[in-house]
């Protein structure tokens, strides 16, 4: 029989133990029924008559064997119950440990994704409704990673963006932003509109 102490416990190993326990319980029950059928002698009914002679109304051999087997089986049962309990504890501990590992891996994945995300050099703090920026899908709090040819490596100040915008009037610009921890590409075409500037 599998010893729950060796290696990780599986659900099927626990089921095996429970099955074994059920079998032992069934055997104990059968022996008790046998004792009941022997004039209800049970586990401690007398095996001798009033004069001290072996009783002749019961099968003494059967009664002795049944009593002996019940005692042995009860010991087995106790040991099995202990094994089942330990196995269940281990199974629970393994599940807890696995859950902890899964959570740690999830955190590590998120962190490695964060490390893979490019650096932003500007943040959108306002988008005027109806403006070219608004129509392109740019949103407040988007962090700009690339704006046409401008990126974190060559960005010095907002004048860089203004220059790109002026040179790209009427032409679509590729803009990459970070939104909610993900990279999003926006196609933005600077053009004249009712409001100020070419973007809004």
From TrEMBL:
<keyword id="KW-0143">Chaperone</keyword>
<dbReference type="GO" id="GO:0005634">
    <property type="term" value="C:nucleus"/>
</dbReference>
<comment type="similarity">
    <text>Belongs to the proteasome subunit p27 family.</text>
</comment>
<dbReference type="InterPro" id="IPR040815">
    <property type="entry name" value="Nas2_N"/>
</dbReference>
<dbReference type="GO" id="GO:0070682">
    <property type="term" value="P:proteasome regulatory particle assembly"/>
</dbReference>
<dbReference type="InterPro" id="IPR035269">
    <property type="entry name" value="PSMD9"/>
</dbReference>
<feature type="domain" description="PDZ">
    <location>
        <begin position="103"/>
        <end position="181"/>
    </location>
</feature>
<dbReference type="InterPro" id="IPR001478">
    <property type="entry name" value="PDZ"/>
</dbReference>
<dbReference type="Pfam" id="PF18265">
    <property type="entry name" value="Nas2_N"/>
</dbReference>
<comment type="function">
    <text>Acts as a chaperone during the assembly of the 26S proteasome, specifically of the base subcomplex of the PA700/19S regulatory complex (RC). During the base subcomplex assembly is part of an intermediate PSMD9:PSMC6:PSMC3 module, also known as modulator trimer complex; PSMD9 is released during the further base assembly process.</text>
</comment>
<comment type="subunit">
    <text>Interacts with PSMC3. Part of a transient complex (modulator) containing PSMD9, PSMC6 and PSMC3 formed during the assembly of the 26S proteasome.</text>
</comment>
<dbReference type="InterPro" id="IPR041489">
    <property type="entry name" value="PDZ_6"/>
</dbReference>
<dbReference type="InterPro" id="IPR036034">
    <property type="entry name" value="PDZ_sf"/>
</dbReference>
<keyword id="KW-0175">Coiled coil</keyword>
<dbReference type="GO" id="GO:0005737">
    <property type="term" value="C:cytoplasm"/>
</dbReference>
<protein>
    <recommendedName>
        <fullName>26S proteasome non-ATPase regulatory subunit 9</fullName>
    </recommendedName>
</protein>
<feature type="coiled-coil region">
    <location>
        <begin position="70"/>
        <end position="97"/>
    </location>
</feature>
<dbReference type="Pfam" id="PF17820">
    <property type="entry name" value="PDZ_6"/>
</dbReference>
């Amino acid at each position: 029989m599998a010893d729950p102490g060796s290696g990780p416990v599986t659900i099927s190993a626990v089921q095996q133990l429970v099955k074994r326990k059920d079998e032992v319980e069934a055997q104990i029950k059968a022996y008790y029924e046998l004792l009941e059928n022997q004039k209800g002698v049970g586990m401690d009914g007398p095996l001798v008559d009033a004069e001290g002679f072996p009783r002749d109304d019961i099968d003494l051999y059967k009664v002795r064997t049944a009593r002996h087997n019940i005692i042995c089986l009860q010991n087995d049962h106790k040991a099995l119950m202990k094994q089942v309990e330990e196995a269940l504890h281990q199974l629970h501990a393994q599940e807890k440990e696995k859950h902890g590992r899964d959570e740690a891996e999830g955190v590590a994945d998120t962190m490695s994704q964060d490390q893979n995300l490019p650096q932003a050099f500007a943040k959108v703090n306002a988008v005027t409704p109806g403006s070219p920026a608004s129509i392109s899908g740019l949103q407040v709090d988007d962090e700009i990673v690339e704006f046409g040819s401008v990126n974190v490596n060559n960005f010095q100040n907002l004048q860089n963006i203004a220059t790109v915008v002026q040179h790209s009037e009427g032409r679509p610009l590729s803009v990459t932003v970070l939104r909610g921890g993900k990279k999003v590409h926006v196609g933005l075409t600077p053009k004249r509109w009712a409001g100020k500037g070419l973007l809004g």
